[in-house]
Amino acid sequence: MPAAEAGPAGASRLLEGIGRASARGLAAVGFGATLLSDSVWWIARGRSHGQVVHAAPVFSEMMAVGIRALPIVTLLSATIGLMLALQGIYSLRQFGAEQQVVLGVALGITREFAPLITGILVAGRSGSALAARLGTMTISNEIDALRVMGVNPVRFLVVPSLLALLVMLPCLVLWSELVALAAAGVYVAGELGTTFGVYVQEVNRAVSAGDLGHGLAKTAIFAVLIALVGIVDGSAVKGGAEGVGRVTTNAVVHGITAIVFTDMLFVFATTR
Amino acid sequence: MIEVEDLVTHYGTRRILDTVSLRVRQGEIMVIMGGSGSGKSTLLRHLLALEKPTSGRISLLGNDITQMDEFELYALARKMGVAFQGGALFSSMTVGENVMLPLREHTKLDRGTMQIMMRLKLEIVNLAGFEQLMPSELSGGMIKRAAFARAIIMDPALLFCDEPSAGLDPVVSAALDELILRLRDALGMTIVVVTHELESAFRIADRITVLDRGRILATGTVDEIRGSTNPRIQNLLNRRFEEETLDPDAYLARLTGEGAPAR
Lengths: 272, 263
Known about the structure:
The structure holds two protein chains of two kinds.
Chain A: H1 7-45, H2 55-65, H3 70-93, H4 101-139, H5 142-148, H6 153-192, H7 196-206, H8 209-235, H9 241-271
Chain B: E1 2-11, E2 14-24, E3 29-33, H1 40-47, E4 55-60, E5 63-64, H2 70-77, E6 80-83, H3 95-106, H4 111-124, H5 140-151, E7 158-162, H6 170-187, E8 190-195, H7 198-204, E9 207-212, E10 215-221, H8 222-226, H9 231-237, H10 248-256
Parallel strand pairs in B: 3-8, 3-9, 6-7, 7-8
Antiparallel strand pairs in B: 1-2, 1-4, 4-5, 9-10
Helix pairs in contact in B: 3-4, 3-5, 4-5
């Protein structure tokens, strides 16, 4: 490893590496921001320039990123809900406060777990798919083909994915919250000897519109991040099929990292 | 139709094209020929406005594309068709949808009319009845023909073809050559073909431009190129390998890695 080399040459090489990586990262962030502003522009003004954002690709993307993710989102959400209930009751039992578990579970799911888990799942499913598609299209000249046909690639490829994720991710998160809360409720009601109806009432009392809003606002940011990371990574493809594999992996890693970091910043900014 | 003046382009710091000038007349088939690394693909990418040149002027249909903004280029693109080397068909769409895409994006025709036009073009390239297939279900030659159908769906004034016969067997390749000639004769298109296949170039070209190491060696009719006395053109035509004069010092430096870095 060059970084391990002693002496000024090794140190300067290490610095050079850090510098180059930072520049690349900054360039990627800049590219993402440009894509976002371009997308907004095309949605607003595309029609007047003969570049219409068609509805059909948006709906087919919505099917792919949203509806087809339902089974796995349902399964994971139910598992997470159940797990939270188990852990909640276990830890609260130490103080004899099992009755408070509903508050913890309800807030934990709506404010944190449902958005985060769904975001990570969709980043793994759709962010990677987006990167693979963009990567393959780039190496097979399909992006060039769009340009020479007079079709703006951002309007044609980026906007539908972005819109689909912006609509479907919050829907998935709402569904995930519902499933997780229900799964937790089944266990909590049984364990505490109450009924599911009582549990629902308690959840209603515990969760405010603000809590739901907190979760959904984060989700909207996650949606944009997943789309942009997938596209930025995908279009950075170099080489052939191997390159596509690499950008796909990158998209998942970068997407999840971006989601977790943004989540932390969002919580830091809004809850203190 | 096409005028290139003193085009200079760089890839990083490496000069790829060096003061290239070229004229293509209305209704002619111009073949741009050259070996690998001659810069012919780069020249094509600049003609398609996919790259920005260092200096020089490229005029298509009377418009200087180096000075045009994005929207002007999109408008111009409707009068151009491009058949890429690998076809560049969209793998998520059927052949028919691929061919119809420019119509769907640029016209307000109803679907029925678009389908008729699509079938007409597929008929021209001998792919009638294949519109429901996905590109992955086609052979290499069929993909190229489908790409041609997509390139001509808007009846462009200018058609660009990148290596139309590369990687195809002689019969399919001859059929594609026939197709290019037919498009010129029947529809009056101006056609630029980039290729390294000599046989195909001689069969279809009205004029040939030979590129070599980023410079134009010669432009002329098929006979003029055949009769050229330029040794590098003769090498290209006769598939002769040219021994480079060896500089022992440079060779040693390359081997030991002590020469100028290759980057």
